[in-house]
Specification:
Mean pLDDT: 94
CATH topology: Pnp Oxidase, Chain A
Strand order of the largest sheet: 2-1-7-8-9-6-3
CATH architecture: Roll
Number of domains: 1
Low-confidence stretches: none
Oligomer: single chain
Structural class: mainly beta
Number of strands: 9
């Protein structure tokens, strides 16, 4: 039986035109290795007569990776940040996530780096850095 440990989860990310070969994320932070925000797949409205109407609306999915200040994966994000700044252009991410504890796999397609911590915060020890990629699609693969 699998456990709910997160230690054996893995993510591979590629960046079109920069890192075409998927890079394995390494050096996750202890408390927050990865996270997704809630999504809003339905738009609902209540009419003045009290009748509720609703419909599906396509939505993006944000995935945030939190990496230790000495993570080897920081180099990839730093290259992307600098390339975006220099070229004044966004670069597309694609990825695969494997959550061993639950046996789940996810395909992440057409993402942009929408938030980044540019340098580690200095406290007693250097603090983790966060990077958020907003994907057009995060799809769970069949088990």
């Amino acid at each position: 039986m699998a456990t709910l440990t997160n230690a054996n989860s893995s993510f591979l990310l590629s960046v079109r035109n920069l890192f075409p070969v998927p890079q394995k994320m390494q050096g996750y932070a202890t408390d927050d290795s990865f996270a997704t925000n809630d999504v809003q797949p339905m738009q609902v409205m209540m009419g003045v007569d009290g009748m509720l109407s609703g419909g599906f609306v396509p939505y993006p999915t944000e995935v945030t990776f939190t990496l230790q200040a000495d993570s080897p994966s920081l180099a990839m994000f730093d290259v992307v940040l600098e390339a975006q700044k220099a070229q004044k252009e966004g670069f597309l991410f694609d990825g695969t996530g494997i959550i061993q504890g639950t046996g789940e796999k996810y395909a992440m397609t057409k993402g942009f780096l929408t938030s980044a911590t540019p340098m580690a915060t200095g406290k007693k020890t250097l603090q983790p850095r966060k990077f958020t990629i907003t994907f057009e699609s995060v799809t769970k693969a069949p088990v």
